[in-house]
Structure formats: structure tokens, C-alpha cells
Hints:
Layout: E1 2-7, E2 17-21, E3 31-36, E4 39-49, E5 63-64, H1 74-87, H2 91-97, H3 101-104, E6 112-118, H4 132-144, E7 147-148, H5 149-155, H6 159-165, E8 169-175, H7 195-206, E9 211-216, H8 222-235, E10 239-243, H9 251-261, E11 265-268, H10 274-285, E12 291-294, E13 306-312, H11 329-340, E14 343-348, H12 353-360, E15 365-369, E16 380-385, H13 386-391, H14 400-411, E17 415-419, E18 426-431, E19 448-450, E20 455-457, E21 464-466, E22 479-484, H15 486-496, E23 502-505, H16 515-524, E24 530-533, E25 546-551, H17 565-577, E26 588-593, H18 599-605, H19 609-623, E27 630-638, H20 641-661, E28 666-679, E29 682-691, H21 697-707, E30 712-718
Parallel strand pairs: 9-14, 9-15, 10-12, 10-13, 11-12, 13-14, 16-26, 17-24, 17-25, 23-24, 25-26
Antiparallel strand pairs: 1-2, 1-4, 3-4, 3-5, 6-7, 6-8, 18-22, 19-20, 20-21, 27-29, 27-30, 28-29
Helix pairs in contact: 1-2, 4-6, 7-8, 17-18, 20-21
Bound molecules: adenosine-5'-diphosphate and zinc ion.
Adenosine-5'-diphosphate is lined by residues 191-194, 197, 216, 218-224, 373, 542.
Amino acid sequence: MIAEVIVDIAASETDKIFDYLCDDSVVVGSRVRAPFGGKTLPGFVMRIKATSDYPLEKLKKVQPCPDELPALNAECLALAEKLAARYRVPKALTLRLFLPSEMRTGKVRELTKNYAALAVDFAEMKFSKNAKNQLGAAEYLRDNGKSECAFLNNLFPGGVAALEKKGYVKITKEQILRDPYKNVESESVERTLTADQQRAVDTVNTDSRTVQLIHGVTGSGKTEIYLTLIAQQLKKGKTSIFLVPEISLTPQMLSQLRARFGRNAAILHSGLSAGERFDEWWRLRTGEAKIAIGARSAVFAPLENLGVIIIDEEHESSYASETSPRYNTFDVALLRAKRNACKLVLGSATPAVDTYKRAKEGEFSLIRLEKRINKRPLPEIIIADMRREVRRGNNSAFSGALKEEIEKCLAADKQAILFLNRRGYSQTVICKECGYVAKCQQCDVSLTYHRDENCLKCHYCGTKYNMLSACPECGGVKLSYAGTGTQRVAAELQKLYPAARILRMDNDTTSGKEGHYKILKAFGEHKADILVGTQMIAKGHDFPSVTLVGILDADMSLHFSDYRSGERTFQLLTQVAGRSGRAEEKGKVVLQTFDPENEVLRFATAYDYAGFYENEISLRAAMQFPPFSKIVRVLVTGEDDKKTIETLREIYVELEKLYTEQSEKFLFFNKMRAPIKRIQNKHRYQVLMRLSDTSVLPLIYDICANARNRDVVVAVEENPTNLS
Ligand code: ADP
Ligand code: ZN
């Protein structure tokens, strides 16, 4: 027999299908090890046939991998081919999307697993106050007996390992045990749906359109709708994919999902080790697990017989991949939904303008949830005019109104969240004598001062620099710190309220696997009074005792030179405001701005999505911005400036031809340096286009694919969320 094999190398010149001899154990979708150019490389079987156009004696033989099932099912293979054609990338690259990394290195799945059991009586164990995960894992083992380590790590990261070190737990390697949850009916933590929720579920099930948009205010109970839809499909023996922005996979969410679906759910979150991901992936592939939950990459889950795909917080920019292939999660999900004849459910309190337009025009079904559960009112938003504060001589980060509300909140033993879209202590360090600004040596951006580490950091590449004692240009010692970051806010707050317990959450405090879980967990347990953070804290969290949210600088994202800045500001403010007053207590929001008359802010404070949308869509129409056009950026980057410019020129010449021939399809066409000229020592150039007619898009992809070479990376970005 002959196998057509794709060898797993991503260079475009090898994106060919090679014929190999194989035995009967090799089927379509199998992993194999293929001799290639003196090496043995992993490969995947695309087709099996009886004859080859090549002389048989010239063909080499592939080694099969002993998997219980071929790694790729028919749907995945078809999808990988489609995506490769759509984004003009090698199939080897799109196939990778469907496989956990362990699979690609040719690792064979182990048939034994680690199990943990208590070695000491639970009553004799001692735990320090902060050892929540140890305690959780120990309690679980006390109540359930011997359990799989990977499963426990998922719920209580690091707990088992720490228990083993103390001698409280014994870990043994054993043949895979029968699934501990197989016979357990999913636990009845189900809630009775409200009338609104029931109506939403019914519409999803009966409406004939594939895409169902649930536009529900924050706290309207969308999660419960998703879980009900998944449970219904599970009863029918069908599978589901549930996509969330990574940050939503909080400990509360994980245990809620585990309680509801037990081992039917495979949760693919970033806290898992490669081996654990591999196991979860296999459980999906073999059908043992029927629900894939995770961030955007879970859209490639190896499930068959899909009953529903859900994308929560559909407006989030994290659903667009920023590495090649630059797929859009919605597009992939839609392909899968159509193939499986199932529904694609999108949910958001602030849908993307593009999505909402398609729903309003009837292409998608539009389901509205206008009330919060139990009719809890949305928090009242107080606007603090920072111009007036400055005129009064208040130059601090806090307005009088905000201070007053913080004091009330602390006095009532409630919690507050303060939000600022800037990490670090101060944005820039400037020499007052000569105007020198400290910049990263590898990137063309200014450095941010971090006081706790007393260093300067580049937020693009992460490089740390020693703090300056004098200006390197003129030797002056008068250095000033401009712009306020989260660190500075936390420090100033502590000075104002010495007794308050303050937590900070941003990219600096959340490094490590469980960084943000720990902070959120501590805050959720009311171990702190105030949480200061970047937009990380804006999403999905449900903290019942938070009654105050402060938005310190509502204007920040309005000033980005991006057609979506209004949309993003509206989304951000709504999400942040939604964190306040989620339980019985009515919440308050103080929004600080230098521009109180701004329309976007006005719509946001009135919770008027419809008004915002009408305003925004007419602006976009007038300016011919997306969704009335498509922005395409070709980004050319490389370490060698000369070679990068050469490639850029090659592409530009071809694109310019296209532009001259079909200029009626272009609204804008220009080449330039990218706004940030250098990141991590790579020079960056771009050709920016705005298309009124996307029929030229495949040609643009072709031109870029042809110019690709070893030294220069060429990326095509469609409506990029980040134009730096
Ligand atoms: P959303 O995702 O729309 O912001 P959530 O799903 O977080 O809203 O729900 C808000 C709150 O209401 C949560 O605390 C949730 O547990 C609760 N809730 C949701 N549905 C119900 C229901 N049917 N009965 C009682 N409480 C519910
Ligand atoms: Zn840098």
C-alpha cells in the first residue's frame, strides 16, 4: 500500500505530499515516522492508495505509530486543508493546530498514569494558612479515595506535589484505572432557568440560522444558558466546544464545570503541563470526554458529532490568532458548525460592531437578555470630571468622588476594584534637563519604571534594565516619572488608607502558571479590600462583595489611533462596570475622565449599547471603515534590515501592480515603517491597505506567500486588532 504523507516541517518548499510504502496498520489520519533527507521526521497520512506514479523500488517505508486511533479524524484533515488554502500557509502548519505538541514530537501515549492516595490520616495533617491547594487536594482524596494526579492538578494546581513532599500522599504509577466518573450522573447543580434564559435556550434550539448571538447585559446569566445547551447535547450523545477568553478559566469556573460535567469535560487551560494536555486531548479524541473547554485553540478539538459550539465574550480580541496562521476563531468555528449542522452560539454584553450588524441584518439570530438575574439593577455610574479636579488643585490619581466612595466601601467592609490600563509605576522616565527618554535597545519603545524591582522594563520584549541614577545623554540627575501605572496607584492608595489590604493584578504580578488564579482566589475570599489592576480584571469574574469599581483613566484607550478605539472603550467600560454590585448590594462605579462630554463615555454610562451601536455604525459607514471595508496589513519583519527592505520592495512592486490594475477595489494603499520600527531587534515594515472589495484578498496572500524567505517573515493581517 502507498501512503500520501505530509512531513511535519513548516518550510513552504516542503509543503508537498510524498508517497511512502506502508503496511495495513496505517490509515488516513495516522501519525507515522517518515525517513526524510537523512532524518526520520514525524508525518501525517493524508490519503491511502494502491499505486504510485513513482517507481515502487524508489519509495521508502514509513514506520507507523502505535496509536489506538488515527490522530486526525476526517473533519480535522479537511479543515486543515481548507485553512492552508485560505491563509496560503503550508499544510504542515495548519495540521499542527489540531494536535497537542507532545503528539507532534512523536511521543506515544502512556498507558499508565500517576495516582495519588492519602498516606496519613487526614485528621493528623497540618496545613499552613495559604496552602489552599494542598488542603483542597487532601480533602478531595479523603472524600473520593485514590485519584488521578493530572485531574487533581487541574483543580488544585501544585497541591499533590506539595502533599507528597510532606509525606501525606503516596503517588503510584498504575495502569489507567476505570474512569472514576463514568457512572456518576452529572451532579444536579443545575439551576432552574429564568424565563429569559429558557427563551434563549429555546431560540437557539429552534431557530434555523447557524449563528445565534446572545446579547445579554453583564450578570444576565449567560453562563447558565451555555451550560444548559451543553447538557442537552450531552444527553443526546453529542459533543460540544465551549470557548472562553483564557482569563475566564478561574478556579470558580473550573470547579463549576467539573461539578457539572465531571469527566465528560476536558479542560484545556494554560495551567496544564504538556503531558496533561496530551491526556486531555486523547480523552476527547477517543470520545471519553465529550466537551472541550478552553481558549481559542480549543476550537480545533478532535471531537466528532458536534452538537453545539459556544464562543463566550465573542468580542474579545484574544479570539484572533497573532501567530501564523492568523486564523479567526469565529471563522473556524463556523466551518465546523456548518459541517456538523450544529449551532454556533456567540455571547457578549457588548458584541463586536461587526457581529451585531450581521445579527441586526438577520444573518445571525439575535437573542436579547436585558435584565440581570433577580432584576438586580446595573450599578450607578458617577462621572468625575478630572479637569475640575485639576483646577481645584487635586493632582492625584483619585478624584474627590472616588475617595468618598472608597471610604464608604471600606467602612461597610465591602470590596472595591480600581482599574487602570497601565502597568508598572510610571510610564516613562524623562530627563528634565535634556528631554532624554529611556528606551529599549531592541525595540523602539520607551521603558516603564517598576518600583518594586527598581528597574526599567520593556513591555514589548520583557527586557529589564537597571534604573538610571543620571541621564546617560547629559549626565543630569533630575529625572522625572511621567504617567501613572498600577504600581503607583497601589502605593498611593496604601498611603491614603494604611489599614486597607490592597492587591495588585497585572502582567507583573501574574507570572507563573497560577499567578492570576492565586490573586483572584485571594480576592474572592475577601482577603483583600481593594484590587488594583489592568484590563485583566475587567473580564468575567463574579465577586459578590464588590460594590465599587473605579475607572481611573477612562480616556486612555480612546486616544489610540485605531478605528476600533471607541468600540473597545465601550466594551471595556461596560465589562468593568459589570464587576460591581453582582450580589444583593447595589453597586457603584466612578468613572474618571478629562473628556466628560465624549459620546462613547455617555453611551457607556447610560448602558446604552443600541445607542452606541447606531452612533458607531454611522461613523464607520461615513469613514468607510470595517465592517464597510477590510483593513489588510502586510507586515514584513526581519533582523537584517537590508534583506527585510528587499523583501518589502519585492512585495510592494507586486501589490502596486495589483493596485493600479484594480484600484477601484482599494480605498487606501501605502507602504511605510510600522509604528514601532523595531521589536526584539527585528525591523518592521508594512504595507497598509483598505479594501472596499475583498476579491483581491487571495491575490494579496499569493504575492506574500511567493515572497516568503528564510530570513524575513511576511504576515498578512486582516482587520488587525493591534497595529503597532
Ligand atoms: P453573565 O455571564 O451573563 O454575566 P452569569 O452567568 O455570571 O452572568 O450570572 C450572573 C449570576 O447569576 C451568577 O452568580 C449566577 O450564578 C447567577 N445565576 C445565573 N442563572 C441563574 C438562575 N437561573 N437562578 C439563579 N441564579 C442564577
Ligand atoms: Zn524591548
